[in-house]
Amino acid sequence: MTTEVRVPTLGESVTEATVATWFKKPGDSVAVDEMLCELETDKVTVEVPSPTAGVLADIVANEGDTVGVDALLANIAEAGEAGSATPEERPSAKAAAAAEAVSDDAKTVDVMVPTLGESVSEATVSTWFKKVGDTVAQDEMLCELETDKVSVEVPAPAAGVLSEITAAEGTTVSAGGKLGVIGGKAGASASASAQETAPAPAVQPASTGAGDVEDAPSAKKAMAEAGVSRDQVQGSGRDGRVMKEDVAKAVAAAASAPAAQTSAPVSTPRAPVSADDAAREERVKMTRLRQTIARRLKDAQNAAAILTTYNEVDMTEVMALRNEYKDLFEKKHGVRLGFMSFFTKACCHALREVPEVNAEIDGTDIVYKNFVHMGVAAGTPQGLVVPVIRDADQMSFAEIEKAIAEKGRRARDGKLSMAEMQGGTFTISNGGVYGSLMSSPILNPPQSGILGMHKIQDRPMVVGGEIVIRPMMYLALSYDHRIVDGKGAVTFLVRVKDALEDPRRLLMDL
């Protein structure tokens, strides 16, 4: 009897992960809940425990493989079955058994496009790791597909020789489509490989049983005349074939909305680089977290009407209050008294008066939140994350400081869960810790407001008709002008300023 080890639920909107590390190898004994492997998503790291005690019979998803939710990672056999063969047929082998076709000369297996995920019906063949004539092992990676959401690696459904590639690099394929053919014997593909001295994918578009599929000649001519590359045009013809009208649509879209370009690297052509400069460059693939950050920030700019209003706050009273009570505060509560609790309290106070800054747009509705889940942006070695302090409006100064310290520590260690980064209603970003004097923060969708804190700097100010030196900080509120009017945004920022310049107003609820 065997037990399957599968990918656990990764969190809302997260559909795949990368196998980072296996702590066990086939043949090792494992106990219940003992850590087997670690998965990495674009946001968090997930540890996978053993669902039962026994022996790790085999590993289906190796380190570096991309896996979806509920995908098979490994099989665990009972201790008495440790010496048996692979406990269960791999899912890829099961699928291949249904799709394989037997010829007179050799047994062949078709390589098919796997299920791409909900609402995803097609993908583009980005890279072939093997060429025609290469020997492949079962579950060895053959090629990589790219969709508009994720990258999918396609493993070999059986061992043998890659005798044919039917979908070349750059070809658009549908779910369940045919990618290639694996022959059962090396000799079975000898004639095919002899006819192709260079890999067919590099010079040949996809071929099917009906023959080669190429872009329409009129489309090729139109692309050449317009100076449009093939990857800038979405084909609407059969098997992704580009038609003349597809080129016209791409040219019109580029002319009317150049700012609507996505964050994909191919959207902005590189400037010519000399050979000397190219030799000194270093190309590093973006991490999935960085790709997600880039996509979300661009989506925020495209979807919301972002506007920023500024003000400045005199930090004299807050700094004096903090200096007077910080030692007593730390002694009693076991946590340092920082500025973040003052800003969090001040924002919660202002959000009650200007509730639209704490709301969000859902279709044609405005959803007002009668609570404050405060997002606190934190920089980590992996990138920017925004842990959420829930019900911050109900917390004391000490509870807020403890929560921020704990979330910050977990963020730096990469231990935040998906639940800890979801559900925020407003965000505070403190660029001042890095020395920023002024900036315009970008919204954290679907939120309608974000407050930017900056560096505290002594500046000459006129107070009571005299010039005095005061510790000043610029504040920036970026807001979604679709829901927040200028009056509401300015009122919010003034209320934050008033509360910080006279912290007694927070106690009096003024």
TrEMBL record:
The keyword Acyltransferase applies. Pathway: Amino-acid degradation; L-lysine degradation via saccharopine pathway; glutaryl-CoA from L-lysine: step 6/6. Keywords: Acyltransferase, Lipoyl, Transferase, Tricarboxylic acid cycle. Signal peptide: none annotated. Its cofactor is (R)-lipoate. The keyword Acyltransferase applies. Residues 2-77, 108-183 form the Lipoyl-binding domain. Residues 192-241, 258-280 are annotated as: Disordered. It is an enzyme of class 2 (transferase). Residues 192-201, 258-269 have a biased composition (Low complexity). SUPFAM superfamilies: CoA-dependent acyltransferases, Peripheral subunit-binding domain of 2-oxo acid dehydrogenase complex, Single hybrid motif. It holds the Pfam family 2-oxoacid_dh. Its EC number is 2.3.1.61. It catalyses: N(6)-[(R)-dihydrolipoyl]-L-lysyl-[protein] + succinyl-CoA = N(6)-[(R)-S(8)-succinyldihydrolipoyl]-L-lysyl-[protein] + CoA. Residues 214-251 form the Peripheral subunit-binding (PSBD) domain. Gene3D superfamilies: 2.40.50.100, Chloramphenicol acetyltransferase-like domain (3.30.559.10), E3-binding domain (4.10.320.10). PANTHER family: DIHYDROLIPOYLLYSINE-RESIDUE SUCCINYLTRANSFERASE COMPONENT OF 2-OXOGLUTARATE DEHYDROGENASE COMPLEX, MITOCHONDRIAL (PTHR43416:SF5), DIHYDROLIPOYLLYSINE-RESIDUE SUCCINYLTRANSFERASE COMPONENT OF 2-OXOGLUTARATE DEHYDROGENASE COMPLEX, MITOCHONDRIAL-RELATED (PTHR43416). E2 component of the 2-oxoglutarate dehydrogenase (OGDH) complex which catalyzes the second step in the conversion of 2-oxoglutarate to succinyl-CoA and CO(2). Belongs to the 2-oxoacid dehydrogenase family. This is Dihydrolipoyllysine-residue succinyltransferase component of 2-oxoglutarate dehydrogenase complex. The gene is sucB.
